[in-house]
Amino acid sequence: MGSISITSVTKRFQAGDSAVTALDDVNVTVQEKEFVTLVGASGCGKSTLLNLIAGFEMPTVGQIVVDGQSVKGPGPDRGVVFQQTALFPWLSVEDNIAFGLSLRANRGKGDRQHVVERMLQRTGLSAFRNRRPAELSGGMRQRAAIASVLAINPSILLMDEPFGALDSLTRSLMQDFLLEIWEEQRKTVVLVTHDIDEAIYLADKAVVMTAHPGRIREVIEINLPRPRRYEMRSESAFIKLRDHVTAFVRTEAMKGTTPPTRPSTEERESMEHVVH
Amino acid sequence: MLQQTKSAEFQSSAVTKPGNQWRRTSKVLQYVIFPGTIILLWQIFSVIGFVRRNVFPPPTEVLSVWYDLITGATDIAGRYSGTWLDHAWASTWRVFAGFSWGVALGIFVGLLIGLSKVMERVLDPTIQVFRNIPVTAWVPLSLIFFGIGNAPAVFMIGLGAFFPAAINTTHGVRQINITLYKAAKMMGANDQELLSRVILPAALPSILTGVRLSMGIAWVLVVVAEILAVRSGLGYLLNDAYLFYRNDVVIAAMLSIGLLGFLSDRLVVIVRDIVLTWNEKETFGGEH
């Protein structure tokens, strides 16, 4: 459970009269239980690719297959952790974690109280169970958001710059927290980031993307030993990988500063878009 | 955040210390000083005889006539003596009857427009045009259709209450954080669950803002309707007393309307505060 195959996927967005090609002929395979990071400068279509796997958008050309099934829309087999934490502000931490399991679609997916208890403990939020999201720190909020997604036990975890809004110290703690969870539960993870260190530190496989149009530049196997430790970042193997990836991403980012800016796909989305 | 909550608790316990008596007194003063000054100036103004007393009676006279209006004990209010409760009840009943149907329909239509592009194209232009017709302009037609009585009053009040409820509901639905909607959908929420567990609670702050505006408009319109279309209620009392040159009764009726409107507004606010405990944490609503 949890394999993803992306075959010659192209995604175009209509922007007025002209079409913007966000992704151009992308091919990626993600094995079961693999940790894959998508890294690249902003505008390279990495978030678009994640949205396609999640089923929030459909490819213009090509196909995305998850566990032998073509993706038709979002579903609880693919849990998404958003950059802007998706916690319901009117619910307590506890109720947020229980939300997914209380839906009709997930009935019989396990004892809700038991799962919530375990998630609270695992994320260290037991003492804050009755707090509202607004009363939590950024790191706690993102942990609660991850817990609420893990509660429905998806086989794939899709993460869109989940730690992008956190300060660097909290971010590195969250990375280790995520790795711990992953070692325990061994889900397939696809994580989008523009942080090169993060992309290497977490991944089995880092997919480096280039922009305008979004293409896959290189797929790098990260053969650093697991479990990963923070100190590895200063080891020569890590530094070598980082220099390698940085070279690609930097030249891309510099190119990206010259052409006229285009509206990002995320910004153009709106309520109307989804609710037809 | 944690730290802040703690220090806030500390502060509030400090306020109740006997040493801070002055602070409490000054707080009460802040509430009293403005209305107190107005009443005082009013009293002085009338007693000096700047304006004739029966044209602009002082607050003391208004209070005693108000007392008689309610109790019928002193007969100062003459033909209106002891009628206050009936009038107040008539107005309140009309306000809530009109408010209920207007707000219910408003929220329903607002949801339709907010959720569906098709319904927006079908309904919104008409609503935007009708919204710009003052409800008072509906007086002739409502009288022709409904005759004299409660019906035209309840109709006009509901019409007035409809628009703020509808427009704020639409706005509330549109500004829902798309990430929450996507997250619920990703977890497998069906349409009914999306509506009841994501869209409605997320839109609730805005909906209740609309409801509050609707309540305010309802009290404006009940007076208009009672002056023109019915022979009971505080608006009727006000107009009738005006015709009989009883300005003390007019002012008492005015203040009664203000007071009942204020109480109705408090009711909405109380309901809102019970339902929306989560909302204030993220808004500029605290201490200044």
Based on the model shown, name its key terms:
heterodimer; A: 276 residues; alpha/beta; 4-stranded antiparallel beta sheet; 9 helices; 10 strands; B: 288 residues; mainly alpha; 11 helices; 0% strand; disordered N terminus
Biggest β-sheet: strands ordered side by side in the sheet of chain A: 6-7-8-3-9-10
Low-pLDDT regions of chain B: 1-15
Distance between the termini of chain A: 32 Å
- Greatest contact pair? A-B, 36 and 34 residues
Please compute the radius of gyration of chain B using only Cα atoms.
24 Å
* Subunit organisation of the chains: heterodimer
Which structural class fits the helix and strand makeup of chain A?
Answer: alpha/beta
Short summary of the structure?
The complex is a heterodimer of chains A (276) and B (288). Chain A has 276 residues and is α/β, with parallel strands linked by helices.
Describe this structure in words.
The complex is a heterodimer of chains A (276) and B (288). A six-stranded mixed beta sheet of chain A has the order 6-7-8-3-9-10, sandwiched between helices. In chain A, strands 2-1-4-5 form a four-stranded antiparallel beta sheet, covered by helices on one side. The longest helix of chain A has 21 residues, at 236-256. With 276 residues, chain A is α/β, with parallel strands linked by helices. Chain A is globular and about 50 Å long. Chain A has nine helices and ten strands. The model of chain A is unreliable at 263-276 (pLDDT under 50). In chain A, helix 2 (93-102) packs parallel to helix 4 (138-150) and helix 3 runs antiparallel to helix 4 (138-150). With 288 residues, chain B is mainly α. Helices cover 77% and strands 0% of the residues of chain B. Chain B is built from eleven helices and no strands. Chain B has helices at residues 2-15, 21-48, 59-71, 84-115, 117-131, 139-146, 150-174, 178-186, 191-228, 234-243, 247-275. In chain B, helix 6 (139-146) crosses helix 7 and helix 10 (234-243) packs antiparallel against helix 11. Chain B starts with a helix and ends in a 13-residue tail after the last helix. Chain A binds chain B through residues 54, 56, 74-76, 78-80, 82, 84-86, 88-91, 99-100, 103-106, 132, 134-137, 149, 152, 269-272, 274-276, and chain B through 1-2, 5, 115-117, 173-174, 176-190, 193, 197-198, 201-202, 204, 276, 278-279, 281-282.
